[in-house]
């Protein structure tokens, strides 16, 4: 009997797309495929709106007839798009969305082919379509107003730019995965964050004095040399080769555009080489049995708990503390705050929002820190600790206590994360009043109950499997993700409404009281629906168990 032929590259590519679609839809008995497909496609809908908006922007008379603004906008979008692609694995902690790294380890596919197939497949994910939609719309708008010398070369530049972003996004993804697999990942991330903070302190902030010099004259009062220098600087880094290449084609300089296409191809190759080295390292680490961890003597972490519920709470605290993804999520708001100061982002918010700027920024960072902690684990509350749910079913305890313990730990962790971010903002920026801080904290207190309430039901109706070792994880379906985003949006409404009412004058104690009223309302809703979630948990215990332990 002859061996079956090894699948070709395109067959492997179809298998990768099929795997991602299967995981994204989270198919199973009783699931609506039509609804899942609609959510899968609908998640890329914002890209259409973004693309159309920037298409119209590039066709506006003031922009289209300018000799500077089109290049600046194109090059800026190139830089922002590439930066978003590369940093997305860190910002979203989406390091477990690409489980083919482990699923295909035993399959007849080489690491190099897996890298190529994974990179190409990532170009057509819904979030990728959203990422490069603004640049796509701006490029089409620019091409519609300027005659390009070689339109085919513009298409080549666009494809090379997309491949460049996809290649370096693999570098970011594999770097984060390799760090999280290290035994001392917490120390590595903590040391990296500290080094980043120290290095950023030596970099002078961007001069934003031009914001206050515009006055009532608006953009026309700007010194255009600032915009010209920025456009030139952005065009000289690899992501800007695409925008500058379009400009060169508009002026008939096909040779220069060809050189920039070659530059994009070269840096794409560099990114793929680095990603390949990181992928090989990941496979070597995944194939090792790993060193045995030393126990801290005979110390029992549950020796001092007085009740069964206290034991459950302590167990959840330990699981969350030891989860590498939680460590990554905890670092992101602080990195964003450091970048915000480095780029003088607060000055821009002060210019736009006046005395409300610190409340908006501090509240936004605190809410983000709370949301990524609460939603990430509450929406998969029965599986982020691996097969722990099977242990709960075998233990002589009430599952309602398990749910209450998980909610308490996740809620306190989210609130604690928000407090740390708020204090860090106040110390690091040296700005923000007590009222601003209280608005941010009360806003988090309003968001967390909604996230926990939604997470309880999403965990029951969309249970997914998760391996804490990061070897594989079934992706949370887009339907559940959209519902989670909706719950977070509802939770943020009191904060947003209060600050909009405050305007540029800044929030007052009445703003704190209004947001606190919303927090009390949402907490009441959470307490009202929690008994229903507990009853459903007892009814669906076998369904959840099969979902989180399936192979």
UniProtKB/TrEMBL annotation:
User: In the record, which residues are listed under signal peptide?
Assistant: none
Q: Which domain of life is it from?
A: Bacteria
Transmembrane among keywords: yes
Q: Does the keyword Chloroplast apply?
A: no
Query: Which of UniProt's keywords are assigned here?
Result: Membrane, Transmembrane, Transmembrane helix
User: Which segments cross the bilayer?
Assistant: 35-57, 69-91, 152-176, 188-206, 256-279, 328-353, 359-377, 409-428, 440-464, 476-496, 508-529
> Per its record, how is this protein called by name?
Uncharacterized protein
């Amino acid at each position: 009997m002859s061996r079956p032929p090894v699948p070709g590259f395109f067959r492997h590519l179809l298998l990768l797309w099929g795997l991602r679609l299967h995981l994204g839809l989270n198919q199973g008995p009783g699931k609506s495929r039509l609804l899942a497909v609609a959510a899968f496609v609908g998640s890329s809908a914002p890209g259409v709106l973004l693309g159309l908006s920037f298409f119209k922007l590039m066709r506006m008379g003031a922009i289209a007839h300018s000799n500077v603004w089109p290049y600046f906008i194109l090059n800026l979008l190139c830089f922002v798009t590439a930066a978003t692609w590369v940093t997305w694995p860190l910002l979203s902690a989406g390091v477990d969305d690409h489980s083919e790294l482990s699923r295909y380890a035993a399959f007849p596919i080489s690491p190099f082919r897996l890298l190529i197939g994974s990179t190409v497949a990532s170009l057509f994910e819904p979030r990728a379509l959203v990422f490069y939609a603004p640049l796509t719309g701006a490029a089409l708008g620019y091409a519609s107003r300027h005659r390009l010398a070689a339109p085919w070369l513009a298409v080549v530049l666009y494809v090379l730019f997309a491949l460049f972003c996809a290649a370096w996004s693999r570098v970011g993804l594999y770097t984060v995965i390799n760090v999280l697999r290290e035994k001392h990942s917490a120390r590595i991330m903590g040391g990296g964050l500290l080094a980043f903070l120290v290095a950023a302190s030596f970099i002078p902030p961007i001069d934003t004095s031009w914001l206050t010099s515009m006055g009532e004259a608006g953009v026309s009062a700007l010194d255009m040399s600032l915009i010209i220098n920025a456009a030139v600087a952005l065009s000289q880094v690899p992501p800007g080769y695409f925008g500058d290449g379009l400009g060169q084609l508009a002026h008939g300089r096909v040779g220069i555009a060809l050189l920039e296409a070659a530059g994009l191809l070269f840096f794409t190759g560099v990114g793929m080489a680095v990603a390949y080295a990181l992928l090989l390292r990941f496979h070597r680490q995944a194939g090792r049995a790993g060193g045995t961890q030393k126990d801290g003597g005979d110390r029992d972490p549950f020796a001092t708990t007085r009740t069964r519920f206290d034991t459950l709470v302590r167990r959840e605290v330990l699981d969350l503390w030891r989860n590498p993804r939680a460590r990554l999520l905890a670092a992101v708001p602080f990195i964003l705050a450091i970048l915000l100061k480095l780029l003088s982002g607060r000055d821009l918010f002060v210019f736009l929002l006046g005395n409300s700027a610190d409340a908006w920024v501090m509240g936004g960072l605190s809410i983000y820190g709370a949301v990524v902690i609460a939603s990430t684990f509450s929406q998969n509350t029965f599986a982020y600790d691996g097969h722990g749910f099977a242990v709960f079913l075998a233990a002589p305890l009430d599952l309602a206590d398990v749910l209450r313990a998980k909610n308490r730990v996740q809620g306190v962790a989210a609130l604690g994360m928000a407090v740390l971010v708020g204090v860090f903002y106040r110390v690091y920026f040296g700005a923000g009043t007590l009222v601003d801080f209280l608005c941010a904290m009360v806003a988090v207190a309003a968001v967390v109950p909604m996230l926990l309430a939604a997470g309880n039901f999403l965990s029951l109706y969309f249970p997914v499997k998760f391996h804490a070792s990061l070897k594989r994880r079934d992706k949370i379906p887009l339907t559940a993700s959209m519902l989670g985003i909706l719950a977070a949006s509802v939770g943020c409404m009191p904060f947003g409404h209060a600050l909009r009412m405050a305007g540029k004058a800044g929030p007052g104690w009445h703003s704190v009281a209004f947001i606190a009223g919303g927090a009390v309302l949402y907490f009441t809703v959470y307490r009202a629906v929690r008994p229903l979630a507990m009853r459903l948990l007892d009814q669906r215990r076998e369904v959840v168990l099969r979902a989180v332990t399936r192979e």
